[in-house]
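TOKENISE THE FOLD
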Amino acid sequence: MTERSMQEPTLLLLTALADAPRHGYALILEIAAISGGRVRMRTGTLYGALDRLLQQGLVEVESEEVVDGRARRTYALSDSGREVLAAEAERLRTVASEAERRLAKPRPAPRGAFARLATGRGGFGRGLSVQGVFA
């Protein structure tokens, strides 16, 4: 899982379990909170992801109880899940740091043919403007 970037729902789900075990509905609420309301995980998606993460050994069932006549499982991040999440957090930190570094640099002036187009001295024929080329 560390060879490719982690899908956002998986990242959010593991993050939601990083500080405390949670049951399904609490996970849905926590994922919405972590994402600032941008991601609202549906029940089917959540339990499909939890089953996959259980098979991969990244999460484990902490407890099972019956609440209001319904079975409720509480999930926890496993030790290997914690390692995978830490590695993904480091990967994201590295990429974000590089993006910030590059954004802080001044943009170079256009060169070559593009510079001629950008300054209106392009070689596309008489009377053709940049707007005409890109319209």
